[in-house]
Amino acid sequence: MPFSIGANSAGPAEIPATSTKVRQRTQLRDHYGAFHSRGLMEQSATCIVPLLEMVFWHEVRRRDLWSSVVTERVVIIGSGPAGWSAAIYAARASLEPLVFEGAISEENRIRGTLPLGQLALTTEVENYAGFPAANLTQFLETALPKERRQYMAPHSGHGVTGPELMELMRAQSVNFGTRIITADIVSADLSKRPFVLKTSDDTVVEAHSLIIATGARANYLGLPSEDRFKNHGVSACAVCDGALPRFRNKPLVVVGGGDSAMEEATYLSKFASKVHLVHRRDEFRASKIMAARVLDNPKIQVEWSSAVTEVLGDDQHGVTGVRLKSLKDDSERTLEAAGMFCAIGHTPNTDFLAGQIETDDKGYVVYKTPFRTETSVEGVFAAGDVADSYYRQAITSAGTGCMSALDAERWLASRGIH
Ligand SMILES: Cc1cc2nc3c(=O)[nH]c(=O)nc-3n(C[C@H](O)[C@H](O)[C@H](O)COP(=O)(O)OP(=O)(O)OC[C@H]3O[C@@H](n4cnc5c(N)ncnc54)[C@H](O)[C@@H]3O)c2cc1C
């Protein structure tokens, strides 16, 4: 009977009995987490989610759970490696963090911002320390409750997959008392204390301190064929995917003309037989030194004044090439390639902050002090890709997630909030 209030879907360990109204309602919302697998979303978003919403709101109205606002000590917004690492640390410090993991919505699916973050969009993760190539099946069976494993793809035995790693982090944070709400934060008022947050469910939450771990999303070209081959040859991260066997000693395409594109093309040239760098203009936006590195690299061929109009491939091989259009004379040709890497930038998920904390010109949160996670608003901390346009890795996000929780804990203690 999965949807009754009080049932614990948390996994092997009990949530500590820190009962508040918020805790009750988060337990109920936590059941929704089982449905964030993309496969299930696609199959059943139209029927199951609305039904669950109905059951949930019926329960909420019946028990009048929303009648009072509880001021949280730490609210964490975001559900990638940064958010869960912050939650593990904050929970172990007995701060009972409340995590908003994002909403299961069509908008988030299209943007690539469903709960569990960017890593849940990929398959094998080979560079997160502590997960060597091994068959993790038995470990996963004991670490995760069955209902949260049933929609995962069969295990390759190669290491850990992105969704598995994120589920493990989530479960670990719940084991120490983290409470989770499956909704977006749509606006925040950081001018008052406590801070006031509004959710996509139209609920208001107050918080003494806030950790922003909302990540960033990769920009893609927006072609339907590109969507079809994501994880099957289309990627937005050379450091993450470039070393995978499917790309080794094969021709690859990189799209872009800025510093990131130069970096991605140079990095991929170590593995690929050849890299075609496709750029819309006849000169690069990148810095001179980065551009020179590319132009001097015999394995990189620049396809000037060109745009990818279609990603070619099939179900068996994934990407096999791209169709290119010349922006000078509209002529078309195809390039053979085992992969296409988009290097046309990322968009940090900071819209909901509406300019209330300092960001750079691209919208990334700016840290006030190097090696600290404090932002321009006292009591608000940031972690992960939302404040990092440079490293953008799961392990670096987890690292700043840990730092943000320690910073928040110390800040709360300095204010006498325990
Ligand atoms: C296809 C792909 C493959 C990758 N492979 C690797 C790899 O192999 N190794 C590696 O180290 N890195 C890899 N990365 C990069 C890595 O995934 C990111 O660096 C990392 O996930 C960033 O973590 P984060 O916690 O900062 O945020 P994210 O993972 O971006 O998660 C943030 C999440 O917070 C939630 N959120 C956003 N806004 C709100 C809001 N307003 N309210 C509530 N919730 C919200 C959303 O669910 C969002 O997805 C890959 C990235 C991609 C796209």
From TrEMBL:
Keywords: Disulfide bond, FAD, Flavoprotein, Oxidoreductase, Redox-active center
PROSITE patterns per the UniProt record, alphabetical: PYRIDINE_REDOX_2
Keyword Iron annotated: no
Enzyme class at the top of the EC tree: oxidoreductase
InterPro entries (UniProt xref): FAD/NAD-bd_sf (IPR036188), FAD/NAD-binding_dom (IPR023753), Ferredoxin-NADP_redctase_2 (IPR050097), Pyr_nucl-diS_OxRdtase_2_AS (IPR008255)
Domain of life (superkingdom): Bacteria
Chain positions covered by the region annotation Disordered: 1-21
Ranges for domain FAD/NAD(P)-binding: 73-400
Keyword Thylakoid recorded: no
GO molecular function: thioredoxin-disulfide reductase (NADPH) activity
EC numbers, comma separated: 1.8.1.9
The family this protein is said to belong to: Belongs to the class-II pyridine nucleotide-disulfide oxidoreductase family.
PANTHER family in alphabetical order: THIOREDOXIN REDUCTASE 1-RELATED-RELATED
Name of the protein in its database record: Thioredoxin reductase
